[in-house]
Amino acid sequence: MRADLAGFTSMSESMTSEDVMTFLNEVFGVFSTIIESYKGVVYEVIGDEIVSVFGFPKESGFTPHMAVFAAEDLLKKLDDLNRKRYLKNPVGLKIGMTMDHASLPSVHRDIRHAVIITKGFKKCQILQKNAVDNTILVDENLHQATKAFFTYRGVGTIEQDSFSIEAYEYETKTT
Q: Which end of the chain is more exposed for a tag (fewer CB within 10 A), N or C?
């Protein structure tokens, strides 16, 4: 899963650098807690984007579902944080998710120090970049694994960087 803050640049232009860092630390601290609560691992943070992996060290039949629940909770929590902070320019979240095979050429106790080889990271990035604010786009594999439990809307095929990804938008539940 890749989750990128949308509108981060315009938000940060109206804040001091200290406030921007405080906001990012708070957001990614909360996001890390959510991801870990659904048995995911934060693989890396790249600027205003968080990359996470689910199913390590051992995948279960519910791993895909847990990842989708985590993504939905990220959206809900960011909405809460936007309201709590009364930002002039609130930020959104664009999430891309795939279910793909990966290999670990070397095993480390901490996955954040392991090298993971997968096309899934690039597919997630393509989905995330093509998502509109506050949406979750998933690939065909994740859609097939979870469609009996979650509702999706087909958005078509995304062709980019030699990838052809059948994309589905997760329909979030309104509260």
A: C
Q: How far apart are CA 101 and CA 16, in angstroms?
A: 42
The full set of domains in the chain, from first to last, is 2-170 (3.30.70.1230)
Task: Dihedral sign for Cα 110, 115, 117, 123, please.
Answer: positive
For 18, 29, 49, 152, 166, the CA distances from 13, given in Å and listed in that order, are 12, 22, 18, 35, 36
Q: What pTM, to 2 d.p., does this model score?
A: 0.89
Per-residue pLDDT of the chain (175 residues; tens, 9 = 90+): 999 999 888 888 888 889 888 889 999 999 999 999 999 989 889 989 999 999 876 677 899 999 999 999 999 999 988 887 666 778 999 999 999 877 666 655 566 566 666 788 899 999 999 999 999 999 999 999 999 999 999 999 999 999 999 999 999 764 4
